[in-house]
What we know:
The chain has 123 residues and is mainly α. Helix content is 41%, strand content 8%.
Amino acid sequence: MATISCPRCRQLIDSQAIICVHCRITLKAYGHPGIPLHQAVENNYLCETCVYEQDDSCNFPQRPYAQNCTLYQSVEESKSELGQHKNNSRLSANVKSWVKRHQGLVLVIALLFFCLLIALLTS
């Protein structure tokens, strides 16, 4: 059973809980365990740190004073995910460009490996 911290009372609760058993705050939207309801901490607003507020694509009626939202995405989390994705794609792009530049060498090494494998199997 995975546990999370309640945004209001900071008590540990089940990650699939719909309502916090300690402070009775709603944690899942529409009573569905698969739809998280993001809650602002204390008197802050979620819109201040939301990606959709930054790019002006939010159409939530409570904007910019929403204290709970189902679509909230943190700017900081999205930046870290983007940085990780860039690093991963940069490595694969480097490998692909190296293989493309050295196609002949890769072909010769593969051919030698194939010949060595045949020689070992036939002896």
